[in-house]
Design goal:
The protein has helices spanning 33-38, 46-70, 82-106, 121-145, 159-192, 197-214, 222-241, 244-264, 272-292, 296-312, 335-338, 350-368; strands spanning 39-40, 43-44, 149-151, 329-331. With 382 residues, it is mainly α. It has a domain at 119-368. The strands form 2 sheets. Strands 1-2 form a two-stranded antiparallel sheet. α6 (197-214) packs antiparallel against α7 (222-241). The protein starts with 32 loop residues before the first helix and ends in a 14-residue tail after the last helix.
């Protein structure tokens, strides 16, 4: 028995109009919602990437710290001397290296993709070191001429000068690698590919609220609030007028510089000027990444600045005065000009040194002839 057909009256089945082939059906290839929460068009979303990197870094610090303390390489009474500082700084250095390698593997990236792929890396590092030491020396010289810093006799002589110079140099190279690796390499790169003005504003607001939430807000925190406030209007204007690729970099620089100032509030002896100076110098180092094409200039500058303060001139460095320095200096006069217990970074004259660093960055750009290679900005939003 033949199946019934809906053939109009007066027409045979052969007289029906042929069906039109509308082509292949479109398949929904978008990933599930849960996947889209964690993964964007360019891999792991920035927020989850930072959370993962922080967790790995925290775990590795515990592991390496336990190993170092168990092996009696460091102890709580080692003090602020060159050898102990060098050994202690190996803990965060190895942790940063391990966390960077882990997150790079998860994101299927090269470790160099985090603002470390620029040309002439050694030359850039050396130029940064020279710039940092010269800018600091200009600040120290100004403080000395103004009577706000007094020089005493040399504290070292003979072979001890070379020995401590080398040890402190290695220690502060590790410091530069750790802090620049976190802020100007990984965070700046990752936030650039996953940030807009509103996310940046939320992040900066959270950083400013942190001391209040911890119940540890003090006068030095005003340096954090000041750098956060100064970046608000320029970043909003950029958000309104500039393309997203360029806008995201400066939003990320605003966030990382505010965070860089915040971590310095944990040091003893810091004042609001010193905190603001740390954040402002951090922003200058962000700009150096933009201008030179990598973070190597910033690493060299950071290491030389700290080396000059701690070893060469013997001043306080972020409120800390370790042992084993060449010259002996003491602040004098008005603490607002001398920096007081904070050191030269706590002086009202610090903006001059920061502007000098910016000028040196532009000079380095010309010497390195990088063509101002722009860091990769593509990536997923949060």
């Amino acid at each position: 028995m033949e199946p019934a057909t809906d053939t109009p009256a007066g027409k045979t089945p052969s007289d029906r109009e042929p069906e039109v082939d509308s082509g292949p059906r479109r398949l929904d290839t978008s990933p599930p919602i849960l996947v889209r929460v964690f993964v964007g068009p360019h891999g792991l979303r920035a927020g989850w990437s930072i959370l993962f990197a922080y967790c790995v870094f925290y775990i590795l610090r515990i592991v390496f710290g336990t190993i170092f303390f168990t092996a009696n390489l460091v102890d709580e009474n080692s003090g602020q001397n060159a050898v102990s500082t060098l050994i202690v700084e190996l803990i965060p250095f190895l942790s940063v290296l391990g966390a960077g390698a882990a997150v790079a593997a998860v994101e299927h990236r090269s470790l160099l993709s985090y603002n470390l792929a620029g040309p002439r890396r050694l030359a850039s590092t050396l130029l940064g070191a020279a710039s940092g030491f010269i800018a600091l020396s200009a600040l120290i010289g100004t403080l000395g001429l103004g009577g706000w810093l007094r020089f005493g006799p040399c504290a070292l002589s003979g072979i001890a000068v070379l020995r401590f110079a080398a040890i402190w140099g290695c220690a502060f190279l590790l410091v530069g690698c750790v802090e620049e690796g976190i802020f100007r390499c990984y965070l700046l790169s990752t936030l650039t590919r996953g940030l807009n003005f509103w996310w940046a504003l939320a992040a900066v607001a959270g950083l400013c609220a942190w001391p209040w939430l911890k119940g540890s807000a003090g006068q030095s925190d005003w340096g954090v609030y000041l750098i956060a406030a100064l970046g608000l209007i320029p970043c909003f204007i950029l958000h309104q007028r500039v393309k997203a690729r360029s806008d995201a970099f400066w939003q990320a620089a605003w966030v990382t510089s505010t965070g860089f100032g915040l971590i310095h509030t944990f040091n003893h002896g810091e004042n609001a000027i010193g905190i603001f100076a740390a954040a402002a110098i951090g922003f200058a180092w962000c700009a150096s990444v933009r201008l030179t094409g990598s973070a190597f200039w910033a690493i060299g500058c950071h290491a030389a600045w700290d080396w000059g303060e701690t070893f060469f001139y013997g001043t306080a460095d972020s409120g800390l005065v370790p042992h084993g320095h060449l010259f002996t200096t003491t602040p004098a006069g008005n603490p607002l000009l001398s920096g007081g217990a904070d050191g030269p970074e706590g002086s009202l004259l610090i903006p001059g040194a920061i502007l000098l660093l910016v000028a040196f960055t532009f000079a380095a750009r010309s010497l390195l002839r990088t063509g101002a290679k722009e860091p990769a900005l593509a990536g997923s939003r949060w």
